[in-house]
Amino acid sequence: MKILFLSSEVVPFAKTGGLADVAGALPLALEGCGHEVRIIMPKYGCVKTDENSALLGKDIKVRFIINDKLYKREGIYGDKDGVDHPDNLDRFAYYCLKALELTKEDGFRPDIIHCNDWQTGLVPVYLKTLYRDDPFFSGTKTVFTIHNIAYNGSFDACQWHKTALDRSLFNINGLEYYGKFSLLKGGLMFSDIITTVSPTYAKEIQTNEYGCGMEGILQFRSSSLFGVLNGIDYDIWDPRRDIYIYRNYSSENIELKYDNKRMLIDELGLDMSLDMPLIGTVGRLAYQKGYDMLADAVADICGMKAGFVLLGSGELKYHNILSDTAKKLGEKASINLVFDAALAQKIYAACDIFLMPSRYEPCGLGQLISFKYSTVPVVRKTGGLADTVFEYDPDTEKGNGFVFTGCFAEQMLEAVARALRVYGNRQKWTRLIRKIAGYDFSWDASAREYVKIYQKASDARA
Asked: Is 355 in a helix, a strand, or coil?
């Protein structure tokens, strides 16, 4: 099968978040399944090559769309202060059209074009309008993946002409979205199959609470909507060979994990003994990630005779709140309001418990990483967290973490307390952390699911 993969960011060339990780890993796994894959992305200023193309894996050609006026600048989507570039519609409408043109120029006739998020949302629209009668794409089907429905790529109606689409598509059955128009909606309305990054999130986004105004469309298209859990790259996230942690280890020599714990305690200057549980969290400081409830609970966590370490950066109000918390707690907690990839991996390796209080989480990678590092997750039941973390029963020893359902600090603290009670039973805790280290959330399994979806899209073509 020939697969064209379109993403606005791809590791190792450009990254702002998890989308880039998916776009860098899934094509490799698809190639490993025996499929021919191409990638097309814009050539931003951060793309460190003078060439017009590059190679991933054995034979995945990555084509760069070159337009210095649109792409050669600071920031992929916005400036250093997080303000969107005012010409983002021009930038990504051009990307969508140019990607189709380059595909024709290369003579790469795809069976599937796999589009990702709003930046690629016009591609399915163009294929069924501007390219409807083009024989080159006559057998091509589109799969559109939602990585986070909160980002919908909406623009003012006065900019419609920049899409190159007929005005008749500016309506409720087209791209119109509450008086504006949305490129994400274009992808949802015109793609052949829709996917998102976990089965539970696929259900959640069909509700008013999580659908961000798109729930009606997704309910209508529910028979073509599938949730496929993201994988993680074990070449990066594996304590057996992680170059950033203090001491490599596995479930076979789990005692070496506690060398990492001792050394992180020393590095961060935490006032705690090695026998005390160490609770950590790594993430973007935002309302979505539940850092409002976490900020209210840090003192209580430390009061449970546990150490606490946080690493993250994001919204200013959480920086301010957590800075005050750090001053009050002193050496009882380590609050690190920065981005530090090496420290993140040390936290996964050293901590006993990993905390993810997300209000919504399309997939979540933190819990998958924590499993591999024998660090037990405590999570809110939502999205991909609900699909991967299940309440541990100390009687049967079934389950793999601790789960809460509400959005209040008290409910999160109850889950933490349950985890700490099990931590107090050294034999059960050791069996639990050895078990979770053996899980396999590699991209190979995800790729096989996507191949089934691609085949379903191809078979539906009458």
From this structure: strand
Please name each of the domains of the chain with its CATH number: 2-231+443-459 (3.40.50.2000), 251-437 (3.40.50.2000)
Task: Output the furthest CA–CA distance in the chain (Å, rounded).
Answer: 70
Do 200 and 227 meet the contact criterion of CB atoms below 8 Å apart?
Answer: yes
Put simply, whether the predicted model's pTM sits higher than 0.90 gets the answer yes
Q: In whole angstroms, give the CA distance from residue 452 to residue 268.
A: 47
Can you tell me whether residue 346 is helix, strand or coil? Answer: helix
d(CA 311, CA 452): 38
Residue-wise burial string across 90-112, b where 16 or more C-beta atoms lie within 10 A, e elsewhere: ebbbbbbbbbbebbeeeebebbb
How many angstroms separate the CA atoms of 314 and 27, rounded?
30
Q: In the predicted model, what is the mean pLDDT of the chain?
A: 95
Spatial separation of the C-alpha atoms in residues 28 and 34, rounded to whole Å: 10
Q: What's the pLDDT tens digit per position in 245-279?
A: 999 999 999 999 999 999 999 999 999 999 999 99
CB 384 within 8 A of CB 197: yes
pLDDT reading at 163 higher than 60: yes
Which of 253, 280, 254, 252 shows the shortest CA–CA distance to 265? 280
Average pLDDT value for residue range 216-224: 97
DSSP 207-272: STTTSTT-HHHHHHTGGGEEE----B-TTTS-TTT-SSSSS---GGGGGGHHHHHHHHHHHHT---
Strands laid side by side in the 154-155 sheet? 154-155, 180-182, 176-177
Does the structure show a pLDDT above 80 at 449?
A: yes
* Closest C-alpha to 306, from 281, 336, 323: 281
Half-sphere exposure of 444 (CA within 13 A, CB side): 7
The neighbouring-strand residues paired with 283 are 312
User: What is the C-alpha separation between 14 and 37, in angstroms, rounded?
Assistant: 19
Number of Cβ atoms within 10 Å of the Cβ of 55: 10
Across the range 28-36, mean pLDDT stands at 97
Q: How confident is the model at residue 462, as a pLDDT? A: 44
CA terminus-to-terminus distance, the chain? 18
Q: Which helix (H) or strand (E) holds 19?
A: helix 18-32
Q: Is 71 within 8 Å of 45 (Cβ atoms)?
A: yes
